[in-house]
Amino acid sequence: MSGSTMISQVRRTFSLLNQRACSWSCSRSRSSFFTDSDSAGLVLQSHSTDVYQNLALEDWIDANVDLQVRSVLLLWRNRPAVVIGRHQNPWTECNLPAMRRAGIPLARRRSGGGTVFHDLGNLNLTFFASKKAYDRQRNLKVVTDTLRRLRPGLDVQATDRFDILLNGQYKISGTASRLSRKSSYHHCTLLHSADRSALSSVLRPSCPGIQSNATPSVPSPVANLLDHAPSLQWEELLGALVQQYNTEFGLHSALTIIDPTNESMFPGVGEMEVELRSWDWTFGKTPKFTMETQLELTSEQPPARCSARLQMEVKNGRIESCHLDVPVHWLPVRLSGELTSVLVGERFCPHIAAAAFSALLRSESGATHTRLHRLCDAMLAVMG
Fold it and tell me: Which of 4, 129, 233, 344 has its CA 20 to 30 A from that of 61?
């Protein structure tokens, strides 16, 4: 099956599911939807494929639904996106320049864990429950039992790290979770037909020389279910997951399509989405880090070559201190000092840095301008 055919098939399947359920689900009020005392559990599927809308929906459910009296399973997918954990550093986890070129957004979720690539070939499952009922192995059992029932020949096992491995070596599902005072949620991915080439191209560091206490991701070889079960279709998989969830938890919940942008059903969810989209959340919540790297500099007129040493401390995504050691024969000490001083207090961002450098570059000419420009370009290149 070609990539374009596979994507078209995925879209047709979800369009069909939306048509079946949306006319009923959209008419339900928030009160009947989340406070029906006869409902011990809900199985929901997000109509959206926007990563920020779906993460906001997770936050809304966790904050507003009484998970002491009912559990919730949320199924959702995203258009291509990279999602980092709450305590991670985006500059060490993902290739930000490649993501910008491809138009792939970056999101920071509220749960811990490592970085993941999402696209329409990946299914996300979020298990909401009370803190007392929090049980990741039981949740993963829903997934593994589903796959074994659908395709008995598949060798799938949940690990002690709460991943799911295929054939004992290929990761098809990763896990993250969040515990609150009374509630919990555990979400996991499930690789059905994801673009593995895109995954490998964006999940690599942007910046050299970063030292941090941020949570690092643990790289693993991955596989798609479709590679080992070519006939496994989306509609079959979704239906079986819903059935197995009901069986495992003794429920009788039908799949309901919901719109996470519906403020009448989810009041305040839009504000949650705005925060998740913000630079202050995505980059500003990065744990403090330092960067120390060597810059290789060349000049043709007159011919010259040298190395410079760049050191930065970054807190809340902003440059707290900056030191640049450049040989004086390449650049006067005055200029290297001015270059670092314009960065202090600014966001650790190549676009912001480029704007800060521009005024300084306009003040120089000739060979000094050329060398200063080369130095600025080298600094921007290591800032992701």
Answer: 233
